[in-house]
Design brief:
The complex is a heterodimer of chains A (about 110) and B (about 850). The longest helix of chain A is centred in the last third of the chain and has 18 residues. Chain A has a single domain, classed as Arc Repressor Mutant, subunit A, CATH 1.10.10.10. Chain A is globular. In chain A, about 50% of the residues lie in helices and about 15% in strands. Chain A contains four helices and two strands. With about 110 residues, chain A is an alpha+beta fold. In chain B, helix 4 crosses helix 13. The longest helix of chain B has about 50 residues. Chain B is globular, with a radius of gyration of 37 Å. Classes of the chains: A alpha+beta (about 110), B alpha+beta (about 850). Chains A and B meet through helix 2, helix 3 and strand 2 of A and helix 2 and helix 3 of B.
């Protein structure tokens, strides 16, 4: 089983969260607000392109927007394969987390 | 609406992979306009730039990965296409491989010619001293220089670090009871230190002492086998009374192939005195004088200090004064050697390198054109593929990339196959053909850097030349035109017709070259030598006194009709000199011969009593001259008789005129020659005339007499008719080589013709079938289909005839002194051969119409 990378996981989850409204701008806004970092579009599109080649996301064209210089939006959806990949990753993560001793950072003795 | 910054946008557009470009650029602009609305255009521009620059690394690495994946995909499709069109792929790869192989051989040959002797570490600082000899009407650039010049330069010119003189000789070495004549060099003691001949044993920096001998690897093995030769003794017989014993002081490694001069053995220069040669005599020349300098530019300073030496030589040798000196760097010695008489390195004429280079360029052109024509022609089958790909959004660039990668795959394959052909087939063949002039070139010894630059250059040039046109042409069709069937391809276009014409022009010219060179080789071989060269056995008896004893014994043998002596020999030895008639001075050659010589050789005498040998003595000053001398003076054979010819201070009277006789290789012109009689004591060459039909037994008898009388000396006999054997072998080899090249060029051109004709027939099969149904005859159809090819061939023939004539005229005249006059027969034969092969190629398609069943063909409609 091929496990997703961290960036890929973040991208897929964000696309899923945005459902039918996932495109560059919305993904970036979502990520900016959730991670408290300023994401560049390049850092978003490069993994999206890779995920598309792997067949984990698919694209479809949306409505043309006046702000986009007449271009249509390119919307991203999870494919079944993408959904399965997220589920596989979650199973592994869950099994890794279950039954662990409490993970509280030990307070430093001065 | 404001536009984002143009430059930043351009940067993005060109770094984002095409698959995500549309969406990404839209998103950039989306955010840009939002910021512009809320915070003003300035902020928006800053954001755009910042965002673009931050995104760039991501986009670039993404694009790179993507294009690698695409390339893999392209190559995969390319492989499938090559595999699918097997016949045209084989035609292309085979043709291109042979062309690449030829160009590799040409490259290695030319590279070899221009990097000769560069293995000498100090090559930049070593120069050969050359001199111009004043011959009255012209000056001759010579590589041999007065013997005292070297030491005099070293003593008198501060910039000359060392001067190394080289002379050569062929004394006899004794090994047990056997004797062998060996090629040795007399050199100044520091020879090994100046040049970089690696030693297997011994030390380079130890000067060669008077008792020392340095052996080549070959000679060390010949005389000492596997034993250690160091310190062993070797007897060298210089003449009857002079045998010296030397101690082996060093043994050289086998010589690099790129050594233009080497040695069998080296001994001290002073030993020339054994041959009664006075090395302080300015009148005697040594094979070569090399000087070592500390800085190559010092040569100019040295050139300014040569006047004294020139005067010294001129007063010693008034007849052949030096007009000036030249300094030739060691690296360029071999390449320039064709223009220098009597030089040490001996390289081939640059014409052969130029010819080979041109031929390989022709071959590459031929096969690239084949590829172009076939690619355009086979593209007709792929038009739908191209149309669909364009319709679903493939960019022009992507289709170009697809075609170029097919082409690059093919070129890489051909380069590999071509390298193999060159390495395993062509180079060994080429070396075998050029073995007579020391041809021994290897890929391994070529400079690695040059080799790589060359191979990559060939790959790029052939790739672009053959691939660019089809790729751009095919990718430019519009899908609608393709699907409406409006696109016409290949075969019919003026462009591809003219390419085919060009190919056949090349095929014709190479064929003409091959045929005329063959004719010339035969012409040279059948040329009259001006004397009877058969049944003459020549013995070289240099430095031995038993000439008369040998002569007496040999002339008594059965089967020997005549014996003549001479100091010189027609082919091996003569004196280069200058003669004077009245106030005119001109370059000439002189032969010192015995009284019976002219009769023995049966030299044709045009006027005078050249044959009355008994009337010609050593002292009466009567001489025979050749026709070339008579012509150069504007005399007639009759008016020449009684004329006075002076050589230096000696005056001669012309007593006879002989027809021109062959004494030099067929490449050089026959110079004015003077034949004079000398006393028997100066004889070196003995010519024995044998009774026809008894050659073998008589030669054995002569050999037996030799062994009995001079056992210390290796038998040197050879037949006069083999004297120019190397020239004839070389001519035959040139003939073989060019025949091979002409056939390969013809085959490549015919492959192209075959490809185009098969495409054409395939395209017109329906039309032909309909015509057949309507009752057209086969000859009529064949004529219809082949008419355009016939026109192409005829135009090619018309263009190539004058070009071939001019090229051959220039080539033959630059190499041969007396080339065959170019007549129509060579052209007629070449045209017949090429046209015949082309007709055969095309006619293989005629079978297709004969066998094609119209019902089968038309059923598909």
């Amino acid at each position: 089983m091929d496990l997703l990378g961290r960036t890929e996981e973040i991208m897929l989850l964000t696309v899923w969260r945005l459902q039918s409204e996932a495109y560059g701008v919305s993904i970036r806004n979502e990520l900016n607000s959730r991670t408290d970092k300023d994401w560049s579009l390049g850092a978003i599109y490069a993994p999206l392109h890779r995920l598309e080649q792997k067949g984990l996301v698919s694209t479809r064209l949306g409505e043309p927007g006046s702000k986009r210089g007449g271009r249509r939006t390119v919307l991203y959806d999870l494919t079944n394969k993408g959904k399965q990949a997220l589920l596989d990753l979650k199973t592994v993560q869950d099994s890794l987390w279950t039954g662990l001793v409490s993970l509280q950072p030990v307070s430093q003795q001065v | 609406m404001r536009q984002p910054p143009v430059i930043a946008q351009w940067l993005l557009r060109h770094s984002i992979s095409p698959n995500i470009r549309y969406g990404a650029l839209g998103d950039f602009e989306h955010i840009y306009s939002e910021i512009a609305e809320s915070d003003g255009p300035r902020k928006a521009n800053i954001w755009y730039w910042r965002q673009a620059l931050r995104s760039l690394p991501f986009f670039l690495s993404d694009t790179l990965i993507w294009s690698l994946i695409m390339l893999k995909n392209y190559l995969h499709v390319a492989y499938r296409n090559l595999y699918k069109n097997k016949s045209s792929s084989v035609v292309n790869i085979l043709g291109l491989s042979v062309a690449v192989a030829t160009s590799i051989v040409a490259f290695v040959f030319i590279e070899n010619q221009y990097t000769m002797d560069s293995f000498h570490e100090n090559a930049d600082n070593i120069f050969l001293v050359e001199n111009y000899i004043e011959r009255g009407e012209d000056q001759q650039l010579r590589g041999d220089t007065p013997m005292p010049l070297g030491p005099a330069m070293q003593a008198g010119i501060p910039q000359v670090v060392r001067a190394i003189r080289v002379a050569s000789g062929t004394p006899t070495f004794r090994a047990g009871n056997n004797t062998f004549q060996e090629f040795i060099r007399y050199v100044d003691p520091e020879f090994l230190d100046v040049f970089s001949f690696d030693l297997r044993l011994g030390n380079k920096s130890t000067p060669i002492g008077h008792g020392d001998i340095v052996l080549s690897d070959d000679l060390a093995t010949k005389y000492f086998g596997k034993q250690n030769p160091m310190g062993r003794e070797l007897d060298v017989i210089f003449s009857d009374s002079e045998t010296r014993t030397f101690t082996v002081s060093a043994v050289a490694q086998p010589f690099p192939h790129k050594a233009s001069f080497s040695f069998g053995a080296l001994i001290h220069y002073d030993h020339l005195s054994i041959l009664n040669i006075d090395q302080t005599d300015w009148e005697i020349t040594t094979r070569a004088t090399f000087i070592e300098v500390s800085n190559p530019t010092d040569v100019e300073l040295i050139a300014g200090q040569m006047d004294g030496f020139q005067q010294q030589q001129n007063s010693a040798n008034e007849n052949q004064p030096i007009a000036g000196f030249e300094f030739a760097n060691l690296r360029g010695l071999s390449a320039a050697s064709y223009a220098v008489s009597g030089d040490i390195s001996g390289g081939s004429h640059p014409a052969s390198g130029i010819a080979l280079g041109l031929i390989s360029i022709f071959m590459l052109l031929l096969s690239c054109i084949n590829y172009m024509n076939l690619a355009v022609a086979t593209a007709s089958r792929r038009l739908k593929e191209i149309g669909i790909r364009k319709a679903v959004g493939s960019s022009k660039g992507q289709i170009i990339s697809q075609f170029l990668s097919e082409n690059i795959l093919m070129c890489v394959l051909s380069l590999g196959v071509g390298f193999g052909i060159a390495y395993f087939l062509l180079l060994p063949g080429f070396n075998a053909l050029t073995a007579v002039n020391g041809g021994d070139i290897t890929i391994g010894e070529a400079n690695t850097l040059y080799m790589w630059v060359f191979l990559i250059g060939v790959l790029l040039v052939t790739g672009l030349m053959s691939g660019a046109y089809p790729a751009f042409y095919i990718s430019s069709f519009s899908p609608t035109a393709i699907f409406r069937g409006r696109t016409k391809l290949g075969g019919e276009s003026i462009f591809s017709q003219s390419l085919l014409t060009f190919q056949f022009v090349i095929a014709f010219i190479t064929m003409i070259t091959g045929v005329i060179l063959s004719q010339n080789a035969n012409y040279q071989a059948q040329k009259d030598w001006g004397y009877e060269s058969e049944h003459l056995l020549v013995l070289e008896t240099d430095g031995f006194t038993q000439f008369d004893v040998l002569q007496t014994e040999i002339s008594q043998l059965a089967g020997v009709t005549q014996v003549a002596g001479a100091r010189h020999h027609f082919a091996r030895d003569w004196s280069q000199t200058s003669l004077e008639v009245g106030t005119d001075k001109f370059g000439a050659v002189r032969f010192d011969i015995g009284r019976e010589f002219l009769e023995t050789y049966d030299v044709s005498v045009i006027s005078g009593d050249g044959f009355a040998a008994s009337s010609m003595t050593e002292t009466d000053g009567r001489v025979v001259v050749n026709e070339a001398l008579v012509l150069s003076r504007g005399w007639t054979p009759e008016s020449a008789l009684g004329q006075t010819v002076r050589e230096d201070s000696v005056s001669y009277t012309v007593a006879g005129v002989a027809g021109d006789f062959m004494y030099t290789s067929f490449l050089n012109p026959i110079e004015p020659a003077l034949l004079r009689a000398i006393p028997e004591s100066d004889y070196r060459y003995m010519t024995v005339k044998l009774l026809p039909g008894t050659g073998v037994q008589t030669e054995q008898a002569v050999q037996a007499v030799w062994k009995r009388l001079i056992p210390d000396r290796e038998y040197t006999g050879f037949f006069q008719d083999t004297a120019f054997q190397s020239v004839f072998i070389e001519n035959t080899n040139i003939k073989t080589m060019f025949r091979f090249i002409a056939i390969v060029a013809l085959l490549i051109a015919c492959m192209g013709l075959y490809g185009i004709a098969s495409q054409k027939v395939a395209r017109r099969l329906r039309e032909i079938s309909i015509r057949k149904v309507l009752g057209a005859s086969i000859p009529h159809l064949a004529g219809k289909v082949n008419r355009s090819f016939m026109i192409v061939l005829i135009i090619a023939a018309i263009i190539s005839a004058p070009l071939g004539y001019v090229a051959m005229d220039a080539l033959l005249n630059s190499v041969y002194a007396d080339p065959i006059p170019i007549g129509p027969s060579g052209f007629v034969f070449s045209f017949a051969l090429v046209l015949g092969t082309a007709a055969l190629t095309i006619s293989s398609h005629i079978r297709k119409f004969i066998t094609a069943n119209p019902a089968e063909v038309l059923r598909n409609e």
